[in-house]
Write a structure and sequence with these properties.
Helix content: 40-55%
Radius of gyration: 28 Å
Number of helices: 21
CATH architecture of the largest domain: Alpha-Beta Complex
Structural class: alpha/beta
CATH class of the largest domain: Alpha Beta
Number of strands: 17
Oligomer: single chain
CATH topology of the largest domain: 2-enoyl-CoA Hydratase, Chain A, domain 1
Distance between the termini: 85 Å
Length: about 525
């Protein structure tokens, strides 16, 4: 009888367990679906994907593992107690990109406009802590309206926790911010603390105070895109490193960038098999760079001729165009390339170019990426605006970044390298491991015309034919102090090479420097120029 009585009891228990499992699946389905089909349709109508659709594009198929999917806020007042959706407006977890672990959080604009509340922030804090502990990249997919006003100071404190973790993770794991909607106030500051910022045109904006506040305070009328759109930040402010026309392309490029970065600062970037021969000669390089130092050319063509399969990812392409910063591969090994761009402002260094290159060199140094510097620089940009704008301290940022970097550093002087700009562009005297030059190089304090005008001004002024005398002195100065082998004879250039051999020389040099070890002074941290 007991046995018979036990049978229905066991069956009931089984039914109860299955019911609970079914309940769980129902709750999870509700969390995944989001607040409503109407909210999803509204998101799509704006040309935007949902948080989960974005994560699916970013990560390898089927690899996403969500964390705290069932989290809900505990706030009350202002109607919040009646609205407690699962996830609390942010989807967090980890997955893989090309088989390597990546942590991610994505604001769900359909829930509270993606605004950050206490529970929302706690979820982000947790996933950031997990990324730091695991030593894996963190990608944030941002589409939030800032702090949740109904939760007051608790929401603001949540941003403080994010900023603190951004700073703690800086230089430890790659941090990538992808802006996919309007992000104001604190939502804009966290991306500014990360390594790379991606934006999508027309749908994403970043600003501390929106157009309405700007109008109220200053009287200026401007649209959201005009104030903080993708092209503004990619081309004017320099806040955004990349800008794309749609989310699909943007997220594909995030995946590509991740393939060029290490998991953390204790690892090297992934090296891939290379089908492009290391000894491939670049015969086109001889004709790409004009011998006349006043004639412009496109440095990107030089880079494309040197790197593996001509592929590279330019960082900050639209900002400070007079200098190029790019990630690429040589012989399958990831390298960072810094190069003057003669087709923009003659390749001079100015405030923005110095800041752009300094941050890039620091990033490369933090993540064990060798730096190749291609030099063709006439000097720093003269002018009252530059001097009053602080070109001294801004130029010092680039100098500091190079001098502080311990990764392999190779510089190549293609044509001219004049004055302080020559020193700043990773010269041998600032610690470059190897310095090469092409046969057309001119390394000097200044150009021959300017130098002759200073040194021989009295002779030129006293001559019966001042112009003829000036030309004679220019020729004499160039022959004595600016011939292609002057620096090599004094050990300031390791070798003068055939341009066609550049790729082979660089790859061999990188192989030798692969095991470079640099002892640095014991210190808490440096105090770089600001």
């Amino acid at each position: 009888m007991t046995v018979l009585n036990d049978v229905p009891q066991v069956s009931a228990a089984l039914v109860g367990a299955r019911g609970r499992v079914a309940e769980l699946h129902g709750i999870r389905a509700q969390a995944v679906a989001g607040p409503s089909e109407k909210a999803t349709a509204a998101q799509h109508a704006k040309g935007k994907l949902t948080a989960r659709e974005r994560i699916a594009l970013l990560l390898d198929a089927g690899s996403f593992q969500e964390v705290e999917q069932l989290r809900r806020h505990r706030a009350s007042g202002f109607g919040l107690e009646a609205k407690k959706p699962y996830t609390d407006g942010v989807v967090t977890g980890w997955g893989t990109v090309e088989g390597r672990t990546v942590f991610v959080y994505a604001h769900d604009f359909r829930i509270f406009g993606g605004a950050l509340g206490e529970a929302h922030a706690t979820k982000i804090h947790k996933i950031m802590d997990m990324a730091i502990a695991a030593g894996a990249p963190l990608v944030s997919l941002n589409d939030g309206a800032g702090a949740r006003i109904q939760e007051g100071v608790s929401a603001l404190a949540g941003y403080g926790g994010i900023f603190q973790r951004n700073t703690r993770a800086s230089g430890v794991i790659p941090q990538i911010s992808v802006m996919l909607g309007p992000c104001a106030g604190g939502a804009a500051y966290s991306p500014a603390l990360t390594d790379f910022v991606f934006m999508v045109r027309d749908t994403s904006q970043m600003f501390i105070t929106g157009p309405d506040v700007v109008k109220a305070v200053t009287g200026e009328e401007i649209t959201q895109n005009g104030l903080g759109g993708a092209d503004v930040h990619a081309g004017t402010s320099g806040v955004a490193h990349f800008a794309y026309d749609d989310e699909e392309t943007c997220l594909a490029e995030v995946r590509y960038l991740l393939s060029l970065l290490p998991q953390n600062n204790r690892e090297y970037p992934p090296c891939v098999p290379c089908s492009d021969p290391a000894g491939r000669r670049g015969e086109a390089l001889v004709d790409l760079v004009p011998a006349d130092g006043s004639r412009p050319y496109d440095m990107t063509e030089v880079i494309g001729e040197i790197v593996d399969d001509g592929e590279y990812l330019e960082v900050h392409e639209g900002w400070a165009r007079n200098i190029i910063c790019a990630l690429s591969r040589l012989g399958g090994q990831v390298v960072g390339i810094v190069a003057n761009q003669p087709s923009a402002l003659a390749g001079v260094l100015d405030i923005e170019a110095s800041e752009k290159a300094a941050r890039f060199v620091q990033m490369c140094d933090a993540f064990n990426i060798p730096v190749i510097t291609l030099v063709d620089v006439p000097g720093f940009l003269p002018g009252v605006d530059q001097e009053h704008g602080g070109i001294i301290r801004h130029g010092a940022k680039l100098l500091y970044a190079y001098c502080n970097a311990t990764v392999p550093r190779i510089s190549l002087i293609l044509r001219k390298a004049y004055g302080g700009a020559y020193i700043v562009m990773d010269s041998q005297s600032t610690g470059a491991d190897l310095t090469f030059a092409w046969p057309a190089n001119e390394i000097a304090v200044m150009g021959a015309e300017g130098a002759a005008g200073v040194i021989f001004r009295r002779q030129i002024a006293a001559a019966p034919d001042p112009e003829a005398m000036r030309q004679k002195m220019v020729k004499e100065y160039r022959a004595e102090l600016m011939h292609p082998y002057y620096a090599a004879e004094r050990g300031l250039v390791d070798d003068v090479i055939d341009p066609a051999e550049t790729r082979e020389v660089l790859i061999r040099s990188l192989a030798m420097l692969r095991t470079k070890h640099a002892d640095v002074p014991s210190r808490k941290h440096g105090n770089p120029p600001q």
